[in-house]
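Dear colleagues,

I hope this message finds you well. In preparation for our joint manuscript, I am sending the Gas vesicle protein GvpG (Streptomyces marispadix) sequence together with its predicted structure, so that both groups work from identical material. I would be grateful if you could confirm receipt.
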Amino acid sequence: MGLITQLLTLPLAPVRGAVWVMDQLVLTAEQQYCDPEPVRLQLAELERELLDGRITEEEFDRREDELLDELEWRQAYQRQLRAP
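The corresponding structure tokens are as follows:
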């Protein structure tokens, strides 16, 4: 931008700054929401429950399928965020 453009749009600088901050907050929230690590921990806990006899094989299979679907979705989203 040229000097005159910068001077004329100077009153809008706080608005641009606020928009940038909001964009960063949304990006961070999306990254945390779509983090696959909590799902991996849930899968490990689910396996412990099966091995301890707290759930049946059928319950394990049902919940494992749900968690694996969730994990796949989150990993795909993470890949999309990292793509150029």
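For the figure legend, we might mention the following. Helices lie at 3-8, 13-33, 37-51, 57-82. Residues 44-84 form one domain.

With kind regards,
E.M.
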